[in-house]
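Quick one: co-fold with iron/sulfur cluster.
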Amino acid sequence: MKVNPAYNTREKLLELYNKPLLELVFEAATVHRQYHNPREVQMSSLLSIKTGGCPEDCGYCPQAARYHTDVEAHKLMTVESVVEQAQNAKANGSSRLCMGAAWREVRDNRDFDSVVEMVQAVNDLDMEVCCTLGMLNEDQALRLKKAGLFAYNHNLDSSRDFYKDIISTREYDDRLNTIENARKAGITVCSGGIIGMGEAVEDRIGLLLSYMEMETPPDSIPINALVAVEGTPLEDQKPVEQWEMIRMVATTRIAFPQSVVRLSAGRTKMNMEGQALCFMAGAGSIFAGDKLLTTPNPEFNEDKAMFEILGLVPKEAFADGEKPVSEPDPIIEARKEKDRLRAIQLEEAKAKGFEPRKITVQ
Ligand code: SAM
Ligand code: DTB
Ligand code: SF4
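Sure, here it is.
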């Protein structure tokens, strides 16, 4: 049951969201147990592979170039440093790595070739690889799939209506299109939203309804609480109450019984009891490690202690789907071949006493 038919209208979902809190949590916990092991919570790590300088105007985002935040822009990380970070995350218990880039969209250039290599390398570590790189066309999605991408994250963020108040540089339909492209390529879809941006409860329900209207709802639904960052238009939003996070997690759990509901940004403002109720209500994953993309998150050790107290165990990689098989990427293989030929020509030229600078390869 991908979508719960008992809650497939705005009215029914609203009624559910507004139930007495403990009734709601009980119902969510009951649904959770039918499809998931309630002791397992996946630890997933985020890595900002390209930070800041983004041309978009997402009102919540510290990485948008037009806002004056403390985020320092960085160009794309190297494949080697990504692998090092991934190994570190794995050693600390993470079974999934989500690589984020502050891009409006993926472009077919050298940077994307490097991302493809990163996907192959992290998949080789037996971790679920997720990417969030902005808009994506069908060919790019296919290339990532063949490299071994397990999931693509692209959030609708809120209802279609409220979205317009937060982002003007790209449309809700653009987002739906990217999600569709990932889906068509056979990549699992991770898509969710943010609460605490000043939206009404109806907008939270509107987000869920957008997912209900899809032919196949997301496999994974992250629920973020806004991290209000100084310098962004949403800097003065007051933190959401953890009760609201619990309600949103529980409602999502019940509405999409088979999806993994991810308790995502905003945990630094929650206590252990609040998070425990989210796990009870069906959250099956957290972001682990002291940094999300650019903002703070609880330390690995803090989360380890929490897991121990609550009797939770980290979920293994590929518990919800097979490990993708990485295929050699033709563009990268061609580049390697070109580099190999260039090295041979250089050697030959050096032997003849030529300056290396003068060598060109067709
Ligand atoms: N640039 C790509 C994009 O927007 O699709 C990928 C990176 S973007 C940072 C990924 C997601 O992070 C956004 O869609 C948004 O839901 C979430 N996010 C960004 N800033 C946030 C904040 N301050 N608080 C909570 N979530 C945030
Ligand atoms: C998602 O829904 N939340 C994550 C992940 N997908 C990419 C991102 C949260 C970012 C929080 C703000 C920051 O650290 O920059
Ligand atoms: Fe750019 Fe993504 Fe941030 Fe929007 S959310 S400004 S697209 S990095």
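If it helps, The chain has twelve helices and ten strands.
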